[in-house]
Amino acid sequence: MPPLLYEPRRRLWLLRTPSTSYAVRIDEDDVVRHVHWGADLTMAQALELAERTPAAGSSFDAVGGAEELAVEGGARFGPPGLQVRFADGTRGVEWRYAGHDADDGCLSIHLDDRHYPLRVTLHYRVHEDSDVIERWTTVENRDERLPITVQRCDSAAWTLPCRGGYRVSHLVGGWNSEFRLRRSEVATAETVFTSRRGMTSHHANPWLAFDDGTAGEEHGEVWSTALAWSGSWRITLHRDPAGRTTWTGGHGHEGLTWSLAPGETLSTPVFAGLFTTGGFGAASRAWHAYVARHVLRHPGELRPVLYNSWEATGFDVDEAGQMALAARAARIGVELFVMDDGWFGRRDGEHAGLGDWTPNPDRFPHGLRPLSAEVHRLGMRFGLWVEPEMVNPDSDLYRAHPDWVLHMPNRGRTELRNQLVLNLARPDTAAWAHAWLDRLVTEHDIDFLKWDANRPFTEAGWPGHADPDRLWIEHTRSVYEIMDRLHADHPGLRIEACSGGGGRADLGILARTDQIWTSDNTDPVDRIAIQHGFSQLFPAQVMGAWVTDSPNVATARQTPLRFRFHVAMAGALGVGGDLTTWTEDELKEAAELIATYKRVRPAVQHGTAYRLTGEGALTAVGYAHADRFVVLAWCPSRPYGHQPGPLRLTALDPRATYRDPDTGATYSGAVLVRSGLPLHLPEGDHASVLVQLDRIED
Ligand code: GLA
């Protein structure tokens, strides 16, 4: 069955994914309206539905049927996804259908304004191996002389079937508390999810999921969308009093205007969406598979066990100290050693040095080569922390180029963490950033960069530029471009995305990076909730998770080493503790746990993830990979001393038999599915267990 079907009489398209379909039609007024997003339909069924979609209402609500891109213009009163103003002051658009292209899973519907030289194209892309539908918009100024002002240009609007009510799932947070899942009723109102920070943000994430209030982890209809953009963004959810639920989203926040020069085309980021009948768990698994198949650059690689120096040494890094950490890291089985902040310029704290990307001569008298060589000699890869988008005012770079930062005339330059944002939308600043990164990677045999960005934009001006708000788009594009060039020139280089922890986690950055530093909060109890939220969209292989010291630096909570490892093993495992203070027993235990992780790593990183519902304080995840199922279960506290009941593993095959290679115990699949796996958790708080089950026969 071809993925794109067209019915010319009704001007209706039916897009088909392996188990869902999506339909749009062009009405007589040449407006593209939504028909269906959900279970698979035949063309005949889609046509039946198209006839049924409501037409115009009363004079107070003159436009009927939700639009695929909600424009400003005419009797439309909902949140617009496209707002333009032409040179003569006219606002809004009136559509004339201008044809379409359909090829290889991609549909482009072209719309022209009836009077002005504006061409808008709605793009759709479907894949044979995914239920994710990718959508984006291009706007083109076809005039030869005059600019067009763009006040809003969203990637897409999405529409739910009319139902009595909906629930929205979204992620909230802050520094040290990212990705906390919230579920709330969709209000009959406009609800805005946004970042005005120039970064994706810790506070909200451009991922949403919708259900009618009845879905669960493993059952029910769920619609979910995610925007592939790492700068400011806005998604406006609108439920009107008639019960129509739509959301429109794209890059940029409210109040920005972009001038589209004669002949210029602006392309939005992809806004991806999927539908499933398998609940929130199936939605996440569909996202994970999509990320692996269509977003990541190196999905088939196993992420190495990483060591990072940040919590161990802070800014206090030097050659001898890092070599001592590296020696111990290698001993316990670490595969990638990353030196964090403090290695360059006069960077002995937050106040200075950012921007001066040459090794600090007191700390590294012979440069970074001896450390890089030693790390490689120990059999590990070598990584470095960088923050290319930022500068301390106390730096040689800022003294030489004070105009390179985001700033405005007659306004202060607000410092956050003693730093300012470099305007990478400027070609000269971007060229400088690319040049030193390229040199650094080349000259020091760098295998991995942790690319950080530790503050949001303020006073985001670009003096002298005719269209200064462009920086909100161009800065992010420039980050993408620099990463793309580094990848092209250094095929072995891997990059971790970081923004004060998980402040830049989205599908856009994931197309250029291999993993995300999930949160600066490494407390394993807090991490359980953070990882739960993160896993809604992102697969375990991109979830950076370190084992650090106890008591935890952020929460002062004391937890056993084993518990810390078991929580971090649910992602791309790393170690971030001060290994020079770990006892021989601790190093031995860490080495054993890392060896265990390496054994289960193909399942964790390349398997299919299940968030398992435990009893009481028990949380667990399971990863299915070929004939193996790996369970990680955590119980932070044990109210009344009760042992949690068996953990049901409904993803297993009830006809099969499974064996735990560590204990030799065998279980029938039917018992594991219906009654569950007895966990035998150790006594007391912060108990955890890792169980591997191998299918042995049918
Ligand atoms: C940010 C990161 C940390 C660490 C510091 C270094 O906060 O999230 O992991 O790299 O910067 O200054």
Automatic annotation (TrEMBL):
Name the top EC class.
hydrolase
- Positions of the Glycosyl hydrolase family 36 C-terminal domain: 620-693
Q: Where is the Glycosyl hydrolase family 36 N-terminal domain?
A: 32-261
| Catalytic activity, EC | 3.2.1.22
Which reaction equations make up its catalytic activity? Hydrolysis of terminal, non-reducing alpha-D-galactose residues in alpha-D-galactosides, including galactose oligosaccharides, galactomannans and galactolipids
> Which UniProt keywords are given for this protein, alphabetically ordered?
Glycosidase, Hydrolase
Q: Which InterPro entries match?
A: Aldolase_TIM, Alpga-gal_N_sf, Alpha-glycosidase_related, GH, Glyco_hydro_27/36_CS, Glyco_hydro_36, Glyco_hydro_36_C, Glyco_hydro_36_N
Q: Which family does it belong to?
A: Belongs to the glycosyl hydrolase.
**Protein name as annotated:** Alpha-galactosidase
Source organism: Nonomuraea maheshkhaliensis
